[in-house]
Amino acid sequence: MVDSNGELKPEHLVLDEVFWSRGESLSFAEYAAREVGLIGALLEGSSLMTVLDAQPFPTLQGMSWLEVADEMLGFQGPARAAHAARWFGDAIAFLVDRRERSEHGRPWADSFERAGERVVDAVPPNKVFGDWIADDIWSMRWTRFGSLARARSELATRLAIARRIAGWLDISTPKQDNIAAAEAVMVVDVIGTTNTWEKVQEAIPER
Predict the structure, then answer these.
(1) DSSP codes joined into one string, 109-148
(2) Parallel, antiparallel, or unpaired for β 24-26 and 18-21?
(3) Tens of pLDDT along 143-174?
(4) Sign of the CA dihedral running 195, 196, 202, 206
(5) What share of the chain is helix, strand, coil (3-state, %, to 5)?
(6) Which DSSP state fits 59?
(7) 3 state DSSP class of 64
């Protein structure tokens, strides 16, 4: 959190130029004014793909989605991160090639079961997903890889993956539906910070 001089060290720096799309650069103030409407629409939790205005799984530059899936599935061992990577890889392989799912382990299940005991008013999965995407956009870490339009393609892809994972989990009641969405967000958020996924972000074409 601090540099060698003991001063606070920024995790990420955004200057006064933000690319809304490949051909449209905005000042930070202009971007912030537009972002308000986008964040608000995401938090409403309806028609998330329409709000993102992007299709999942765009054609990658220099790699294929099945190669990404295989790399995720190659994470072996009992670590929770390895299990999460395999869930993630299974979801990609299913969505792009209809491969059968291989990973079923949930070493984090006890945490979500405890969390479920504290849920009073369960919210729909789209509310969970919309809140997560809004937070990801608000963080502005996506500016490392290009425009918001490019980030929307990446987020639409992770949203599709999260929905597939949630669909594989227990969704027999509104509360379980809610917890399944939260568990899916945990998986895609953890894997979204890996070096493997950063290579994918760099391979997504600019829009």
Answers:
(1) HHHHHHHHHT-SSPPPHHHHHHHHHHHHHHHTGGGGTS-H
(2) antiparallel
(3) 999 999 999 999 999 999 999 999 999 778 88
(4) negative
(5) 60, 5, 35
(6) P
(7) coil
Number of residues that make up the chain: 207
Q: Please, is 79 exposed, middle or buried when counting C-beta atoms within 10 Å of its C-beta (0-12, 13-18, 19+)?
A: exposed
Query: How far lies 93's CA from each of 7, 26, 167, in Å?
Result: 45, 37, 15
pLDDT at 56: 98
Q: Which residues contact 106 (CB under 8 A, 6 or more apart)?
A: 83, 183
Burial label for 91, CB within 10 Å (0-12, 13-18, 19+), is buried
Q: Are 182 and 112 in contact (CB under 8 A)?
A: yes
Q: List CB contacts of 107: < 8 A, sequence separation 6 or more.
A: 78, 80, 83
Q: Is 31 helix (H, G, I), strand (E, B) or coil?
A: helix
Cβ within 8 Å of residue 192, ≥6 positions away: 136, 158
Number of other residues whose CB lies within 10 A of the CB of residue 180: 23
Give the per-residue pLDDT at 13: 84
Name beta bridge partners: 18: 26
* pLDDT-flagged residues of the chain (< 70): none
Nearest Cα to Cα of residue 188 among 152, 170, 163, 169: 163
Longest dimension (CA), the chain: 54
